[in-house]
Amino acid sequence: MTATKPAARPNVAHFSSGPCAKRPGYSLDNLKTAELGRSHRSKPGKAKLKLAIDKTRAILGVPQDYLIGIVAASDTGAFEMAMWSALGARGIDVFAWESFGKDWVTDITKQLKLKDVRVFDAPYGELPDLGQADFRNDVVFTWNGTTSGVRVPSGDFIPDNREGLTFCDATSAAFAQELDWAKLDVVTFSWQKVLGGEAQHGILILSPRAVERLESYTPAWPMPKLFRMTKGGKLNREIFDGSTINTPSMLCVEDYLDALNWAEGLGGLTALQARSNANFKVLADWVEKTPWVDFLASVPSTRSNTSVCLKIVDPEIATPEAQAAVAKDIASTLEKEGVALDIGAYRDAPAGLRIWAGATIEASDLEALVPWLDWAFANAKAKVAA
Boundaries of each Aminotransferase class V domain copy (predicted)? Predict the structure, then answer.
C-alpha cells in the first residue's frame, strides 16, 4: 500500500454513464401505480404515455409546435428512425468525434449508402470545426459525446435561415445542458441518461420543418416497420400522442414518470442543470490540483458536465499500455471496494476513466469519491513500477 485508504465512502457508488444512477431517494414502491397487465393502447395506458410526453415537453421547454414521440430501442433506435426516414432528400454534412457519432457516419455512408455526404471528424477529446457546416445540406451531429466527454458549447453555429434540417443526437445532454430548440429540427435522447430511467425506450422530437420533410419526401429504400412514421404520405400523428409503434414497457414508463416528477419537485430544468454543473465542478476542482489526471476534452468550453472523461497524464506512466493498465486497475479496485461502479472508459475510447456527473448524482458522493481515486491510482502506479 502506498497511500492511506480513505475512510469516507460515497453513499451511492453508481457512476455509470448509462444506464445512469437512479434519482436520490428512489424506491421501487413508487412504481406501484404502473399500468401493469394492461394494454398500452387502453385508455389508462395511453394516458400514461401521453403524460410522459407532456411532462417531457414542460420540463425541457420544447415548443408547442414540435412533436414528441416515445419509440423503441433507446436513443439509438430514435436516431436511426430519424435518419432512415428523413435523410437523402439533399446533401449531408455529418460531424463525429466519438463512437456514436462514428456509428451515424457508418449508417449514412455504408448502410443507407448515401453519396452526397461530407464527413467531418475529430479524435477523442477534440471537436471538429463546426464552422465548416454547409446548412444548405442536412447537418447531423451529437450534442454531447458520451464516450469522449466533448460537447457542443452552444447552438450558435447553426443559422436560423438554414435550408437543410439539423439532426441532433442529444442523449446525455437533454435535461443537463441548454438545447436551443430554434436551431434543432430532429432531436433524440434516452431517458436512461440524465434522469436515470430504465433502458430501451427513446424519445424522438420533430420540428415543423422535420414534419414537412417526412410528408414531402419518400426514401428510396424499404422501411422497417419500427421506423415507419407516415401513412399515405402523411405523418402518423398518433405516435406523438402516445400510440407507440411497438409495445412499450409500462413499468419503464412509470419509472420515467417518477424521474420527471422528481425533476419537477426540484424546480425543473434549471435545477437539473445546476445539479450537473455542481457535480462537474467537484471533479474539475479535483483535476485542477491533481497532477496525474486531466480531462480528455482539451478545450474547457467543450467539456461535458455529465459524461466526464479523464486521461492519465503522470509522466512516469507514459506509454498507452501502462496508462491502460493503471486505468483498468483503478476501475477494478474501486469496484471491488464498492466505492465506484462502471467508471472505466468506453470500450472504443482511449484508456482512462469516465465518471457520470448528471443530475441524479449527489455532489457529496463525488466529493467522497475523489480521495479514493487518488488512493487507487497510487496503488496502481506502484504495481506498474514493480
Answer: 139-345
pTM for the model stands at 0.97
* Residue numbers of the domain that contains 340: 267-385
When computed from its CA atoms, the radius of gyration of the chain, rounded to whole angstroms, is 21
Q: Is the pLDDT of residue 281 over 60?
A: yes
Task: Residue 278: give its domain's CATH number.
Answer: 3.90.1150.10
For 318-334, write each residue's pLDDT tens digit: 999 999 999 999 999 99
pLDDT per residue as tens digits for the range 285-300: 999 999 999 999 999 9
Number of domains in the chain: 2
Q: Which residues contact 352 (CB under 8 A, 6 or more apart)?
A: 296, 309, 310, 311, 312, 323, 327, 345
> How far is residue 26's CA from residue 21's CA, in Å, rounded to a whole number?
10
Q: What is the largest CA-CA distance in the chain?
A: 69
Asked if 96 and 217 sit in the same domain, the reply is yes
- Read off the pLDDT of residues 41-87 as tens digits, 9 standing for 90 and up: 999 999 999 999 999 999 999 999 999 999 999 999 999 999 999 99
